[in-house]
Amino acid sequence: MFTLPKINKLIVNNFTTGRIKPSIGEVNRWWIMVLAVLLIIFDYVFFINQGFQQYSQQRSQEVSLKREFERRQHKAAILQVRRKNLKELNKRYKGLLTQFSTSKGLSILLEELSRAASANGLVFDLFAPLPEVAINFYIELPIKMTIRGRYEQLTFFLKQLAQWDKIVTIDKFELLPVFDAKQKVKREILVMKLIAKIYRPL
Fold first, then answer.
1. What is the DSSP letter of 110?
2. Which sequence ranges are marked TM in the entry (predicted)?
């Protein structure tokens, strides 16, 4: 059985007896191979591995930049849509302003309102402008009215109001019958109570 001391003794005997005679060239080649392996390991550790790390970092940076680009591209697309919507809203707003009465046109509109009622054979029992109310970008002028007339006259008057190119809204609308106190019967005449609201910009 071979033991470690026997193996060492055998190697020494072989070298001393001349059985194994390594030349200087063989020793040099062996050291060159060792150095080459060490250089390859060194190159991998300090250069190739470092290159892999840089590549991995750049790869993750590329993914991050791509996400950022997509996010900004999405925001730019939304911004274009919002600009288009804002332009459309401005256009509608300007169109809406043309339907508002101006300060000068307000008195004319009130005259037209009174004239329309008279032309339909209606009688004003009450025509009382109320205090103006400022709301956001416009001013609201409410007018409290009580008008007497037949049903068809009242409905035609309201139809005319709806066809005006200026904005006029109606609030607190009431339609009441008129009783003949002597005969205690309903007459054809009705009483219409309402608040008409006219608008003008601030």
1. H
2. 30-49
Hey, how many other C-beta atoms are within 10 angstroms of the C-beta on 36? 10
Position 193 scores a pLDDT of 93
pTM, to two decimals: 0.49
pLDDT per residue as tens digits for the range 164-184: 777 788 888 898 888 766 655
pLDDT of 2 above 50: no
The stretches of 44-188 forming alpha helices (DSSP H) are 49-98, 103-119, 151-163
- What tokens were used for 184? 């205690």
Q: What is the pLDDT of residue 35?
A: 79
Please tell me the distance from the alpha carbon of residue 85 to that of residue 45, in angstroms, as a whole number. 59
3-state secondary structure 37-72: HHHHHHHHHHHHHHHHHHHHHHHHHHHHHHHHHHHH
* Predicted confidence (pLDDT) per residue in 30-84, tens digit: 777 877 777 777 766 666 666 677 777 788 888 888 888 888 888 888 888 888 8
- Angle at alpha carbon of residue 127, lines to 123 and 131, rounded to 5°: 170
For residues 49-85, one letter each, b for 16 or more C-beta atoms within 10 angstroms of the residue's C-beta and e for the rest, the string is eeeeeeeeeeeeeeeeeeeeeeeeeeeeeeeeeeeee
